[in-house]
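Hey all, quick one. A colleague (J.T.) asked me to put the zinc ion job into the tracker so the inputs and the structure tokens live in one place instead of scattered across chat threads. No bug as far as I know, just bookkeeping. Sequence used:
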Amino acid sequence: MSDACCTPSPLAHSHVGDNVKKAGTNIDPAHHAKSKPTGAVADLLVVGTISTGNPASPTAEAMAVSGGQIIALGKLSDVENLAGASTTVLKPEGIVIPGLIEPHMHIWTSLLNLSWTDVSHDECPTFDSVVERIKETAAKTPDGQYVLGKLFDPALYPGEPDLTRVILDQVSPNNPVMVMNASQHYLYANSLALAAAGVDDNTQDPAGGHFGRADGKLNGVIGEAGAIMMVAGSLPRPTQQETAAGILEILNMCASQGVTSVREAVTGAIVGVPEVAMLHQLNGAKRLPTRVSTAQFSIMAGKSSAETAATWKQAGVTPFSGDEMVRADAWKVVTDGSNQGRSGYFSQPYLGEDTGGHANWTPDGMRDVLKAGLDDGWQVMCHVNGDAAVEFALSTLEGLLPTYGKNDLRHRFEHCSVTTDDHLERMAAAGVSPSFLMNHVYYWGAAFRDTILGTERANLLDRVSTAYKVGLRPSLHSDYNVSKVHPLQSARTAVLRQMQANGEVLNPAECATPEEALAAITTNAAWQIHADDRGSLEVGKRADFAVVDIDPWTSAADGWDEIKVRETYIDGSLAYQS
Ligand SMILES: [Zn+2]
């Protein structure tokens, strides 16, 4: 589906960028710094069924918290003596589990179409249901106002027609309609939307874009940024308050899935440093619903890799700068595109094509961009989808890393979708751990196997089991808004490897154990975002937890996606309530 996660469109620049820029470059942390545990007396005592996520001591009856830190955990009789007159006692209705960690999601690139109608395959399993959803939305929208759809993914509706102007005119005769392809490389518009943008049958294709035509007339299928901007560039823009509210809405949505920490996986791709500044400012006004770890983007327009790194550094955005709520942790490099968008970089051609895509960088460029981050002491967070991209990034890192000596930066490969045994073994040797977009198997597994990659390569998708076997600590992520933030569903898929399209299992040899899958959304993910004080409930760690109706550690993986999250807590104080 989407490589939108890492290539924000010009539309995102024009619709979100100006508001974010107003945040300026003041990146002063909000000083929600961790308060010191007072020691003897707990300020919070949590009593109930506690599932710690720590295999050495998996359950507890009570947890004492002071200054946001767990100071005791165990039997109620052993812990309750830490309570005093001033201690708040919390008896949650449900099971207390560690706050989940979402190690790769996107705030900024998800803001553009946050309020648009979701016509993803998950919401609309057939092409007809996509059309029906647009019709329903139009019927509820006052005449003349825009009907906007997002995440339409034609790769998942093989044999169906394009979403043309004729179809959209039929279901929305009185409202302009625009639907964005999940890849953001295509936009679909009806006649009213084209007319509102001043585009007609006589309009020439702009540089860097094209208008689909049938018999010389526009068919409403608009390709690439140059043309998309001509049509969508005129959409009403959000206010600064709406942009701020959108950020909070996204983080609150994460919290609603039990998440207490996220990694924003491409910070600065739209307007640079102000993205970090805005997060700090929002957190200063009111503590954010989740902690945010940022991955600084390695590309700024008109700058070399070294100059981009210098720009971050000069602004004060250095490794582990910030505070306990918003912290800069990584250097983001994007090696290739997306496999479902057929822009991932493979050593063999895509099915039905004669190429396997290409890398975004020349060998020298790749070396320079990785080196720029490593020189400044960043954890490298490197997007690699196809097997050739994995090989390219890995061999480049193998050449570079020895010159930096031993360290604990925990470099990461993102998606790391199609890997060989050799890749995974070499990653373990080099100290590069994978974060898998597990929904690749659930939502796109069948499309990968049957129409995009073939069985052999599809079987090499998201190899959680082998990653563990070679000594790696994999995590799972959503790449929101590429897929929904729902760590327990991702963990379920890591165990079952069931494909949504047909319920079949994609390569059972790669099924993770339940413990491995849950570690991948808790302790491993925390380790990958350098949050060693989170991911499990143990003495000395932060009191970041969720309250759920069913304990995933003691229930079958098949039901994990149905688990309800009632509350989340950060440092022992309420962050989200359903
Ligand atoms: Zn991403």
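Adding what we noticed when we looked at it: The pocket of zinc ion is lined by residues 5-6, 104, 106, 265, 479 (CB under 6 Å). The longest strand covers residues 42-51.
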